[in-house]
Amino acid sequence: MSSAAAVRQAIAPVMLCSLAEARDAEHTGGKAAGLARLMEHGVPVPDGVVLTRHAFESFLEPGQLGSRIDTLWRGITDGSADAARAVADDIRALVTAAPLPLAIEASLQRIARQLFPGFVAVRSSAIGEDGAVASFAGQFDTVLHVHSLAGLRDALRQCYASYWSARAIVYRRQRRLAGSGMAVVV
Hints:
Layout lengths: L2 H9 L4 E3 L6 H16 L8 E3 L1 H8 L4 H10 L6 H17 L4 H14 L4 E7 L15 E5 L2 H14 L3 H10 L6 E4 L1
Antiparallel strand pairs: 1-2, 2-5, 3-4, 3-5
Helix pairs in contact: 4-5, 5-7, 5-8
Protein backbone atom coordinates (compact mmCIF):
# COMPACT_ATOMS: atom_id res chain seq x y z
CA MET A 1 0.00 0.00 0.00
CA SER A 2 1.36 3.45 -0.91
CA SER A 3 1.85 6.01 1.84
CA ALA A 4 -0.97 8.16 0.39
CA ALA A 5 -3.32 5.17 0.47
CA ALA A 6 -2.29 4.42 4.05
CA VAL A 7 -3.06 8.00 5.08
CA ARG A 8 -6.47 7.90 3.37
CA GLN A 9 -7.26 4.61 5.10
CA ALA A 10 -6.08 5.95 8.47
CA ILE A 11 -8.35 9.02 8.29
CA ALA A 12 -11.31 7.27 6.65
CA PRO A 13 -14.33 7.24 8.93
CA VAL A 14 -15.16 3.91 10.50
CA MET A 15 -18.30 2.43 8.98
CA LEU A 16 -18.44 -0.81 10.94
CA CYS A 17 -17.49 -1.68 14.50
CA SER A 18 -18.25 -4.43 16.96
CA LEU A 19 -21.07 -3.74 19.38
CA ALA A 20 -18.62 -3.98 22.29
CA GLU A 21 -16.62 -1.09 20.74
CA ALA A 22 -19.68 1.11 20.08
CA ARG A 23 -19.25 3.38 23.11
CA ASP A 24 -19.26 6.71 21.23
CA ALA A 25 -22.93 7.66 20.88
CA GLU A 26 -22.02 10.44 18.42
CA HIS A 27 -21.00 7.78 15.90
CA THR A 28 -22.98 4.72 16.94
CA GLY A 29 -26.17 6.18 18.42
CA GLY A 30 -27.59 5.93 21.89
CA LYS A 31 -28.91 2.39 21.61
CA ALA A 32 -25.58 0.94 20.48
CA ALA A 33 -23.60 2.94 23.04
CA GLY A 34 -25.95 1.82 25.82
CA LEU A 35 -25.57 -1.82 24.81
CA ALA A 36 -21.78 -1.42 24.71
CA ARG A 37 -21.85 -0.01 28.26
CA LEU A 38 -23.95 -2.95 29.42
CA MET A 39 -21.43 -5.34 27.87
CA GLU A 40 -18.62 -3.48 29.66
CA HIS A 41 -20.38 -4.15 32.97
CA GLY A 42 -20.75 -7.85 32.27
CA VAL A 43 -24.45 -7.82 31.40
CA PRO A 44 -25.18 -10.56 28.85
CA VAL A 45 -25.91 -8.85 25.54
CA PRO A 46 -25.98 -10.78 22.24
CA ASP A 47 -22.91 -10.20 20.09
CA GLY A 48 -23.39 -7.81 17.24
CA VAL A 49 -21.98 -5.11 15.03
CA VAL A 50 -22.84 -1.50 14.29
CA LEU A 51 -22.98 0.26 10.95
CA THR A 52 -22.00 3.72 12.14
CA ARG A 53 -23.33 7.15 11.34
CA HIS A 54 -20.59 7.38 8.68
CA ALA A 55 -22.20 4.50 6.80
CA PHE A 56 -25.51 6.39 6.89
CA GLU A 57 -23.81 9.54 5.61
CA SER A 58 -22.09 7.62 2.82
CA PHE A 59 -25.46 6.12 1.84
CA LEU A 60 -26.88 9.61 1.38
CA GLU A 61 -24.02 10.89 -0.83
CA PRO A 62 -24.28 8.86 -4.07
CA GLY A 63 -26.56 10.39 -6.67
CA GLN A 64 -27.33 13.30 -4.32
CA LEU A 65 -29.86 11.23 -2.37
CA GLY A 66 -29.33 13.44 0.68
CA SER A 67 -30.12 16.64 -1.20
CA ARG A 68 -33.23 15.09 -2.77
CA ILE A 69 -34.43 14.08 0.70
CA ASP A 70 -33.67 17.56 2.07
CA THR A 71 -35.71 19.11 -0.74
CA LEU A 72 -38.68 16.89 0.11
CA TRP A 73 -38.26 17.56 3.85
CA ARG A 74 -38.18 21.33 3.33
CA GLY A 75 -41.28 21.09 1.15
CA ILE A 76 -43.45 20.49 4.21
CA THR A 77 -44.99 23.88 4.82
CA ASP A 78 -48.07 23.26 6.94
CA GLY A 79 -46.62 20.77 9.44
CA SER A 80 -49.70 18.52 9.26
CA ALA A 81 -49.54 14.78 9.76
CA ASP A 82 -50.92 14.30 6.22
CA ALA A 83 -48.12 16.41 4.70
CA ALA A 84 -45.54 14.54 6.77
CA ARG A 85 -47.01 11.18 5.68
CA ALA A 86 -46.84 12.13 2.00
CA VAL A 87 -43.21 13.27 2.30
CA ALA A 88 -42.31 10.20 4.37
CA ASP A 89 -43.77 7.94 1.67
CA ASP A 90 -41.75 9.74 -1.02
CA ILE A 91 -38.56 9.51 1.03
CA ARG A 92 -39.15 5.81 1.81
CA ALA A 93 -39.49 5.14 -1.93
CA LEU A 94 -36.19 6.94 -2.63
CA VAL A 95 -34.30 5.22 0.20
CA THR A 96 -35.56 1.70 -0.45
CA ALA A 97 -34.67 1.96 -4.14
CA ALA A 98 -31.24 3.55 -3.64
CA PRO A 99 -28.16 1.47 -4.40
CA LEU A 100 -25.82 0.72 -1.53
CA PRO A 101 -22.31 2.18 -1.77
CA LEU A 102 -19.56 -0.42 -2.20
CA ALA A 103 -18.22 0.15 1.33
CA ILE A 104 -21.63 -0.58 2.85
CA GLU A 105 -22.08 -3.62 0.63
CA ALA A 106 -18.69 -4.93 1.78
CA SER A 107 -19.69 -4.31 5.41
CA LEU A 108 -22.95 -6.20 4.94
CA GLN A 109 -21.12 -9.14 3.39
CA ARG A 110 -18.77 -9.16 6.37
CA ILE A 111 -21.74 -9.10 8.76
CA ALA A 112 -23.37 -11.97 6.89
CA ARG A 113 -20.21 -14.07 7.15
CA GLN A 114 -19.94 -13.28 10.85
CA LEU A 115 -23.56 -13.68 11.98
CA PHE A 116 -25.24 -16.09 9.53
CA PRO A 117 -26.55 -18.78 9.51
CA GLY A 118 -29.03 -17.78 12.07
CA PHE A 119 -31.42 -14.91 12.59
CA VAL A 120 -30.53 -11.34 13.50
CA ALA A 121 -32.37 -8.17 14.46
CA VAL A 122 -31.53 -5.00 12.56
CA ARG A 123 -32.20 -2.01 14.81
CA SER A 124 -31.92 1.71 14.31
CA SER A 125 -29.67 3.62 16.70
CA ALA A 126 -30.18 7.26 15.85
CA ILE A 127 -27.71 9.89 16.98
CA GLY A 128 -29.25 11.91 19.79
CA GLU A 129 -32.49 9.92 19.81
CA ASP A 130 -32.68 9.76 23.60
CA GLY A 131 -31.57 12.86 25.42
CA ALA A 132 -32.66 15.52 27.85
CA VAL A 133 -34.66 17.39 25.21
CA ALA A 134 -36.12 14.58 23.10
CA SER A 135 -36.86 10.89 22.99
CA PHE A 136 -37.60 9.20 19.70
CA ALA A 137 -38.63 5.96 21.45
CA GLY A 138 -40.48 3.69 19.05
CA GLN A 139 -40.24 6.06 16.09
CA PHE A 140 -37.53 4.27 14.13
CA ASP A 141 -37.74 0.76 12.70
CA THR A 142 -36.44 -2.56 13.91
CA VAL A 143 -36.50 -5.55 11.57
CA LEU A 144 -36.53 -8.98 13.19
CA HIS A 145 -35.71 -12.48 11.88
CA VAL A 146 -33.30 -11.37 9.15
CA HIS A 147 -31.44 -14.42 7.85
CA SER A 148 -29.94 -13.57 4.48
CA LEU A 149 -27.70 -11.00 2.84
CA ALA A 150 -30.63 -9.76 0.73
CA GLY A 151 -32.74 -9.45 3.88
CA LEU A 152 -29.91 -7.54 5.55
CA ARG A 153 -29.80 -5.07 2.66
CA ASP A 154 -33.56 -4.54 2.80
CA ALA A 155 -33.58 -4.20 6.59
CA LEU A 156 -30.81 -1.61 6.50
CA ARG A 157 -32.69 0.47 3.94
CA GLN A 158 -35.88 0.13 6.02
CA CYS A 159 -34.10 1.40 9.14
CA TYR A 160 -32.57 4.27 7.17
CA ALA A 161 -35.97 5.18 5.68
CA SER A 162 -37.54 5.22 9.15
CA TYR A 163 -35.30 8.18 10.01
CA TRP A 164 -37.84 10.14 7.97
CA SER A 165 -41.00 8.34 9.07
CA ALA A 166 -44.06 10.57 9.33
CA ARG A 167 -44.02 10.41 13.13
CA ALA A 168 -40.28 11.24 13.26
CA ILE A 169 -40.76 14.15 10.84
CA VAL A 170 -43.62 15.61 12.89
CA TYR A 171 -41.74 15.08 16.16
CA ARG A 172 -38.58 16.76 14.84
CA ARG A 173 -40.49 19.69 13.36
CA GLN A 174 -42.59 20.27 16.49
CA ARG A 175 -39.46 20.41 18.64
CA ARG A 176 -37.34 22.21 16.04
CA LEU A 177 -34.72 19.48 16.18
CA ALA A 178 -32.06 19.05 13.56
CA GLY A 179 -31.38 15.52 12.43
CA SER A 180 -27.97 14.16 13.42
CA GLY A 181 -27.90 10.88 11.54
CA MET A 182 -28.38 7.23 12.29
CA ALA A 183 -26.37 4.14 13.03
CA VAL A 184 -27.76 0.62 12.76
CA VAL A 185 -27.17 -2.29 15.17
CA VAL A 186 -27.16 -5.84 13.83
